[in-house]
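Troubleshooting entry. The earlier prediction with zinc ion gave an output that would not parse, so I re-checked the input for stray whitespace and re-submitted. Clean input:
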Amino acid sequence: MPQRAKRAADRYYSHVGPRFSCCYCDEPAEQVDHATPASWLHYNLHLIEDWRFYSVASCADCNAKAGASFDLTFRERRARIARAVRKENTKLLSAPRWSDDELDEMGSLMVAEIVKAMREKERVKRRLKVLESRSIPEGVPNDMLMRREMAEA
Ligand SMILES: [Zn+2]
């Protein structure tokens, strides 16, 4: 989408929720997710003149997985991200737990790799716990990702 069109669409957004942590998974936020994709708005401006939409803080991974798909509610968007995170990490999540005895038998490079993978697995599990929860971050409107703006009197 051209830069100018992006700026035109920007006035339809309000930033809601926490600023520094991802609204979807609670990891540190690096980006802003237009919870209703700006590209969707761009092609439907005639339909949405008096509607306003939300943007939220997001980590790069949630933002990429949310993508330019349209979701009606925050929970639907987050659930879609959760499914993508789970699918991408199927192998990691089913990785076995090694005992200390087993680790003692291995070379240090191998152990370092396993420890790294186990840390990543714990991080993914933390994210999924938030992504698959029912609670909504403070400041994010309950469910709906859009609201009708009442015309000024
Ligand atoms: Zn995230």
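This one parsed fine. The radius of gyration is 20 Å.
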